[in-house]
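Hi U.,

Before I forget, here's the chain from the pilot set. I'm dumping it here mostly so it's searchable later in email.
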Amino acid sequence: MGEKIRVLIADDHAIVRQGFRQIFSETEDLVVAGEADDGAEALQLARQIEWDVFLLDVTMPNRNGIDTLKQLKKEFPRLPVLILSMHPEEQYAVRAIKAGASGYLTKQSAPEQLVTAIRQVARGKKYVSPAVAEQLANAISTDTEKLPHELLTDREFQVFRMIAAGKPLTQIAEELNLAVATISTFRTRILEKTGLKSNAEIIRYGIEHGLVE
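Structure:
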């Protein structure tokens, strides 16, 4: 048997991390070598130990998955990062791949798919589903065909989805550890880029495009 693939799992739900441990215990080559329950801890562990694959949840406290991913790729460009999310692929997959992820899986994926994906990215390859591959091809084709929300930066998109979920700016500011004035600036940019006029229109747009949890 060859060397084991050392995986770090960054997810703020202990039950999810336990589920992964169970899946990997049934393989001969994968081992959970560490766990983090937020983005800040994941970065700390990345700086202390060498990993073969990072399994990173997209929505975590202190630092979300996309922010953590960008920082990881900046400091460790060769580290394979597999993004795992409860969100449907169409919401985050292309953003994650563009930010440097080696692959994107939803938490509804079968265990076999997860194991295959980890083995693949550990070998330096990408892992995306056919649906994501198609999205990437479309994203590359032309920016003029983009939907309004696809013109937003990652942070603007995050704020956009929170407004679309009906959260007030004060709550968004608290959850993201940012000033209310900063969130208000993001909201202004969002309205400018999307051509929407109000929070009510953002909410309606979000529901129509399946962007609200």
